[in-house]
Model the fold of this input.
Amino acid sequence: MGIIPILISIAVVLAAGCSATESRSLDAVGHFLTGHSSAGKGDYRGALEDFAKAVEIDPLYAQAYWDRAAVRAQLGDWRGALTDVNKALEIKPDVVPSSRAYEFRGLVRRMLGEHKESIEDSNKAIEIDPRNARAYVNRGISRMILGDLDEARLDLDKALQYETDPRRRISIYNVLNKIANLRR
Done:
């Protein structure tokens, strides 16, 4: 086997979101990759269909469930996103870095109004990575909604310490302003 086929095989494995020890149907990988292409172009409905086909062909394709969860979240299907996140983590607990997994599931639960569960997931994300700004934001917003304004403010202040994206920082300041208005 020459170097080119080996490099192509490695690239397909990496792009398909599976380890070298996992075997994937080429059809499932094809739908997975097409889903990524569609999502990259903003065609979330098309991406959703392709990720659905990938998991239909390969029901143990954790990365396809994870990516479908992200697309479902983008489309506002939070219940479907939670189902897919949980399935991905059930199949492969390290489908993404664990702090990111808990942070994202915390966001999904917050969007579903499951604030206590969101706080639990955010706590786990922060325990794993104390610099996870998004987890502090999730926890802070859930705490704000539950009426724990002091702890919410502390979480959002902490998020500002670690968040580097200017747009996200503005969003955090906006939530801090809402907390200040709630205190009046």
Summary: Confidence is low (pLDDT under 50) at residues 1-15.
